[in-house]
Amino acid sequence: MPADFSKLSFLVVDDNSHMLKIVRTILSGFGVTKIFEAASGKEALEILRGENIDIAILDYQMEEMNGIELIKYMRDETRMENPFIPIIMLSAYSEKTRVIEARDTGATEFCAKPVRAIDLYRKIGVIIDRTRPFVRTSVFFGPDRRRHDPDKYKGPERRSDDEATPNTA
């Protein structure tokens, strides 16, 4: 049975109006009715300050403030009221280094362009069904980057449970 996304609000950020329309159409097809659009990082921050956003979808490559810079700003608790917003990075530049950079900056998921509805649906589903706890270290704040069962790892690099920050959003 398909998930019900109708109560979720989305922010889509892309400086390409055609891409905004494509993502809006896909989300509408999923039953989403609350879709906010921004053509720049600055515009996105204004929307984030005024609206209750459940999931943000950001383009990687934008003028002025790119997606990585926007994620850094969004994850900064001193600047944002809710740094726990799930973020899907959307990019035509999907080589491994960019995916790792997005993950290490605090993106929750990464989806390659050209975006397919099924891929975006799965990414949203993962965010909803398998929420990862947030982790705070001296160099990182964001969703736990590990996708495996952390209880199975008992090695010397295992973090203690106090290092994970519960998602209170």
From TrEMBL:
<dbReference type="InterPro" id="IPR001789">
    <property type="entry name" value="Sig_transdc_resp-reg_receiver"/>
</dbReference>
<keyword id="KW-0597">Phosphoprotein</keyword>
<feature type="region of interest" description="Disordered">
    <location>
        <begin position="145"/>
        <end position="169"/>
    </location>
</feature>
<dbReference type="Pfam" id="PF00072">
    <property type="entry name" value="Response_reg"/>
</dbReference>
<feature type="compositionally biased region" description="Basic and acidic residues">
    <location>
        <begin position="145"/>
        <end position="162"/>
    </location>
</feature>
<dbReference type="InterPro" id="IPR011006">
    <property type="entry name" value="CheY-like_superfamily"/>
</dbReference>
<feature type="modified residue" description="4-aspartylphosphate">
    <location>
        <position position="59"/>
    </location>
</feature>
<protein>
    <submittedName>
        <fullName>Response regulator</fullName>
    </submittedName>
</protein>
<dbReference type="InterPro" id="IPR050595">
    <property type="entry name" value="Bact_response_regulator"/>
</dbReference>
<feature type="domain" description="Response regulatory">
    <location>
        <begin position="9"/>
        <end position="128"/>
    </location>
</feature>
